[in-house]
Design brief:
Blueprint (H helix, E strand, L loop, with lengths): L4 H9 L5 H19 L2 E4 L1 H16 L11 E5 L27 H8 L3 E6 L19 E2 L2 E5 L5 H8 L5 E6 L5 H7 L3 E3 L20 E6 L2 H11 L16 H5 L8 E4 L10 H16 L3 E5 L8 H17 L12 H10 L4 H22 L4 E5 L24 H5 L4 E11 L2 E10 L5 H15 L12
Parallel strand pairs: 2-3, 2-6, 9-10, 9-11
Antiparallel strand pairs: 1-3, 4-5, 6-8, 7-12, 11-13, 12-13
Helix pairs in contact: 2-3, 5-6, 10-11, 10-12
Length: about 475
């Protein structure tokens, strides 16, 4: 599907196209292309067609149908969509009853006219950065089918990057929107925690680290989705209001005069030579377009952010894994057990120390933002590994550059900025732009400007081989 979510919604609202026509095109594309990537783990064509017919009937009757009118979407299999099982990639949940209600995010998207096509694949409970599980298998990268699409929102990223649907839901507890967005070559945006409500029946076990948000190819489309789903919900104790419009912000790109601190390592990891070179070239392009690079800085944090992050995330993962009495063996791939296993060794005192570490990291970033507008770092330090192979950079290949901004609950965007060659594959690279909590609209303006500098590329479907 080459049309954007904005183009589809405008055409459906104006009756230039029907929601049913748009949906049929998406279903045909899924049928033809998804066997290569395995982005979707469930599709319900009949349910989607019924929703599209109902939407067309409302439009014919003169009803206002919302900003996402007729836009086909996928829902990450960690959140509920009525009529679908939420398996979370865990065989213990493979036969659970279907959801009877939507998550807050999905309900708001449907109310704005979106049509749910199906569920997108995820690693078990989002526990690791490769989308693979023992129910549905791996999701493959549209740019190199032998490699992972990243995670944990890898199914959503692959579906968008492949053009199956223009928008999906995602979630990000340590990089789970930005990692797959980077490796699949699309734009990615993690909002400030609370901007997009959670509010599911199960309490969030990663506490304030994980947040939801729409995923799409461009920031203009992400902005459209964020305007629909943002805002206070009584179902989420940490949700918040954010005054202003993401669409307006994306439509007013800003780069000239933006003060930048560039950190090639964040003081936490060393990127590969190829990735670093691509990111440095991207920063130079931004400078040529008017951004002001005031400093290059390696050491950002006094203490490694991962230690504070894992002190809170690992016990939550352990709790989630133990919620079902079925033994871990047969439920989880080895990568998915790492964080949960570590949780068994975390004490209550260490969890409190983790919160203190989050506070310290936030204070240090606050001091940094007193002398710059944005912090820019590589989106990832390394290219994605091959499916079911460990990265030469180890299990932390994905999250080292992303999780610090989950730790401080602040917004961060990944911007596709080029490609690197690795073992015969041409793979996307991104830079990451971070700003203080609540600066989401300003970040959207700057990210949209950077996206315009680098451009967006479509995957070469004709070259796909498994």
């Amino acid at each position: 599907m080459t049309e954007s979510a904005l183009e589809i919604a405008a055409a459906v609202r104006s009756k230039q196209r029907s929601a049913q026509e748009v949906l049929d095109a998406a279903l045909s594309r899924i049928e033809a292309l998804d066997p290569a990537t395995n982005a979707f783990c469930a599709v319900d064509a009949d349910r989607a067609r019924a929703a599209a017919r109902a939407l067309d009937a409302r439009i014919a009757a003169g009803d206002s149908v919302g900003a996402l009118a007729g836009v086909p979407i996928g829902v990450k299999d960690l959140e509920d969509a009525a009529g679908f099982r939420t398996t979370c990639g865990d065989p213990a949940r493979a036969n659970r009853p279907v959801a009877v209600a939507d998550s807050v995010e999905v309900a708001r998207m449907k109310a704005a006219g979106a049509v749910v096509v199906g569920k997108t694949n995820t690693p078990a409970y989002g526990f690791h950065a490769e989308t693979d599980n023992l129910i549905f298998g791996p999701t493959r990268n549209p740019w190199a089918l032998g490699r992972t699409a990243g995670g944990s929102s890898g199914g959503s990223a692959a579906a968008v990057a492949s053009g199956l649907v223009p928008m999906c839901t995602g979630s990000d507890g340590g990089g789970s929107i930005r990692i797959p967005s980077t490796v699949c070559g699309i734009s990615g945006f993690k909002p400030t925690h609370g901007v997009v409500p959670m509010g599911d029946a199960d309490a969030p076990t990663w506490g304030p680290f994980s947040t939801r948000g729409p995923m799409a190819r461009t920031f203009a489309e992400i902005a459209l989705g964020l305007d629909v789903v943002k805002g206070l919900s009584n179902r989420d104790l940490l949700s918040m209001e954010l005054d202003g419009s993401f669409v307006t912000a994306a439509g007013a790109p800003r780069l000239k005069g933006v003060r930048v601190i560039w950190s090639p390592t964040l003081g936490v990891a060393t990127p590969s030579a190829a990735v670093l070179a691509a990111c440095e070239a991207a920063v130079a392009q931004l400078e040529a377009q008017g951004a002001i690079i005031i400093e290059t800085l390696d050491a950002i944090f006094t203490a490694p952010p991962i230690m504070a992050w894992i002190a809170r995330a690992a016990p939550g993962s352990l709790h989630t894994a133990n919620a079902d009495p079925m033994p871990w063996e047969g439920r989880f791939l080895p990568e998915a057990t790492n964080t949960a296993s570590y949780g068994s060794r975390i004490t209550a005192e260490q969890m409190i120390e983790g919160e203190a570490g989050a506070h310290l990291a936030g204070v240090e970033l606050a001091a940094l933002y007193e002398r710059c507008d944005v912090l820019i770092a590589p989106g990832l330090g390394h290219v994605p590994p091959r499916v079911r192979e460990e990265s030469p950079a180890g299990p932390g290949w994905g999250a080292a550059f992303t999780l610090p901004f989950n730790l401080v609950r602040a917004p961060a965007a990944s911007i596709h900025c080029g490609f690197v060659a690795d073992d015969g594959d041409r793979l996307p690279v991104s830079i990451q732009i971070a700003m203080p909590r609540g600066a989401d609209l300003a970040l959207m303006s700057i990210a949209a400007a950077a996206e315009a500098v680098f451009g967006i590329s479509a995957p070469p479907h004709s070259a796909w081989t498994v």
